[in-house]
Amino acid sequence: MIPKDTIDQIFEIARIEEVVGDFVTLKKRGVNYIGNCPFHNEKTPSFTVSPTKGIYKCFGCGKGGGSINFIMEIEHFNYPEALKFVAKKYNIEIQEEEMTSEQAERANEKDSLFIVSNFANDYFQDILWNSKEGRSVGLSYFKERGFSEATIKKFELGYNPKAKDAFSKAALKKAYDKQVLVASGLSLINESSGQIVDRFSERTMFPIQSYSGRTLGFGGRAFNQNAKAKYLNSPETLIYHKSKVLYGLNFAKNAIGKEEMCYIVEGYTDVISMHQNGIENVVSASGTALTLEQIKLINRLAQNVVLLFDGDNAGIKATYKSINMILNEGMNVKIVAFPEGDDPDSFSKKLSTEEFKQFLTTEARDFIDYKINVSQLNEANDPTKITTIKRDIIKSISCIPDSLNRSQYCKTYSKKLDIAEEVLLSEVAKARASINKSAPSVVRSKAASQLHKKKQEKLNTTTKLLKLEEEVLRILINYGNDSFTLEGENENVAALIINELEADNITFTHPEFSEMYKEIIHIIEERGIIDLQHFINHPKNEISKKAIDLISNKHSISTNWVDRHKIYTGREDEKMRKTTEKAILSLKKGHVDKQITDLQQEIKEGTIDLKRIQLLSQLTQIKTQISKSLGRNVG
């Protein structure tokens, strides 16, 4: 467990713009920073980071929180893991006892997989550098590929020995659990003997790491001629999902953001060779065809992609598929074709850094030029083949979400495709329409419509009440520590709200709101004030998110309105008394409205008695009184 003093130190030192800036390219705008949201696809930035409040907030998808919450969201960490991650960034030492083997066994399965993967990574590196077999086979191979010792160490490359159970034996000797070793995919159970053996025997090892550099799995290159597969990857586990990981992204993320462009290659050695040759904004798919999740990872950092796939049939097929997926995400895509027999790994070794960079720049072709060239459109004579090629290109253009961009492509390439611009625009529109088919309409019966209407009325009443509850919480969070003058005396905002709600026995109907309200009262009793940072950095994600929502103001009025147009709107905190009183009265009215609605429904359904009718009459009178008070308050 992390001591509270250490947690407080982490919150005090961590800067939201620095933590988020490691994952998102941010630009200064006034006192805040903006960028493209890492949690959903967007072309116009709606993701805001506020250093003064210590929060981030996306007004597109609604996600928000503090530094720790951000790391939890983007890395899928739990609360302690996120604290440790931020502590490491700021060199804050966390005094925790090292896990014993017994404690490791008791840890949850996910944590155990991280622990054993980290052990495996250390083990493979140790074998590579410090064993005779590792140096003669593994290290020699890497050096033959032209990798320097610095590069080998940077990418934490390793080697697993020829012995069928070398790693498994070493792990068991260190008291790692047999079931965890198998669950990690590092070990297997031999079906005939029942013995535990290594998955990656006699292979050079490439650790596959997360965005932040945690080892998730491995790729292994075989030296045994009888191996079933030359290259082998870890299977899917609780921590390793091939479709969501890009090899080398932990090393490339800063360069991708800086260059505003990402190279995507096919193999691990392609990534490593390009890094060694000074080109660091490069990643590869982790043992799988490029996926939508991987494209979204890149889209967090840059919107420009250059594909460097092989020129064989498999490479061309993968390129074609990737082009449409990338375009669909609103990104720009180009392709570089290498000379026959070469790939990024081999070709980068033939050129200097500057020559290779120049080659990549000059040879990068737009996706339409690439398809025209690969399909040999200009050499084709068969009308059917020509039409098929053109329809494929039209389909790719139709994948572009932005209508202006689609139109520009039609204008630019109509001559090259030998299609009139109007015809090309029309065909693209048809292709796009086939993708966005309208949903079928729903026809309801009369009885179903009446039932739907009743449900909708009840839902509207409930929704309205929740909004009123949320407004009271918003005032508490933002202004609860403030005071105003009431009948010649200072009145605290939080005290007024709490006392008024208790006097009329008003409770919050939404469980999340109720929990937050009770905690506000507890914090006031404990510290004398509402500590905003306590809620921003709350261990419970839902409370932290709600606090961020309540303090974020999407529609703030620019100071230019005052300076240029002499329009004075008045600040909410300057009319705090009326705002607070109105929120309290509105919430009370909301509770009365709900009770009236429920009673009226009961009476309609035939539950009629004197007691209900009298209660309905009383509630209606109360509602009238509150409405009058609200009218006076507003005026």
CATH architecture classification of the largest domain = 3-Layer(aba) Sandwich
Domains, number: 4
Low-pLDDT segments = 438-444, 554-570
Q: What's the overall average pLDDT, rounded? A: 84
What is the radius of gyration? 31 Å
Principal-axis shape equals globular
Structural class: alpha+beta
Assembly level:
single chain
Largest sheet composition = 6 strands, mixed
Q: What name does CATH use for the topology of the largest domain?
A: Dna Topoisomerase Vi A Subunit, Chain: A, domain 2
Can you give the helix content as a percent range?
40-55%
Strand content: 5-15%
For this structure, what is the CATH class of the largest domain? Answer: Alpha Beta
Question: How are the strands of the largest sheet arranged?
Answer: 12-14-13-15-16-17
Entry keywords:
635 residues; alpha+beta; DNA Primase, Chain A; DNA primase DNAg catalytic core, N-terminal domain; Dna Topoisomerase Vi A Subunit, Chain: A, domain 2; 4 domains; six-stranded mixed sheet; five-stranded antiparallel sheet; 19 strands; globular
Sequence-ordered SSE layout with sheet pairings:
Layout: H1 4-13, H2 16-21, E1 27-29, E2 32-35, E3 47-50, E4 55-58, E5 64-65, H3 67-75, H4 79-89, H5 101-106, H6 109-130, H7 132-144, H8 149-154, E6 158-160, H9 166-173, H10 178-183, E7 187-189, E8 196-198, E9 203-209, E10 215-222, E11 231-233, E12 246-247, H11 249-259, E13 262-265, H12 268-276, E14 282-285, H13 292-299, E15 304-308, H14 313-328, E16 332-335, H15 344-348, H16 353-363, E17 365-366, H17 367-374, H18 383-398, H19 403-413, H20 421-435, H21 446-479, E18 483-486, E19 489-492, H22 493-503, H23 511-527, H24 532-536, H25 541-551, H26 559-565, H27 576-604, H28 610-634
Helix pairs in contact: 3-4, 6-7, 18-20, 19-20, 21-23, 21-27, 22-27, 27-28
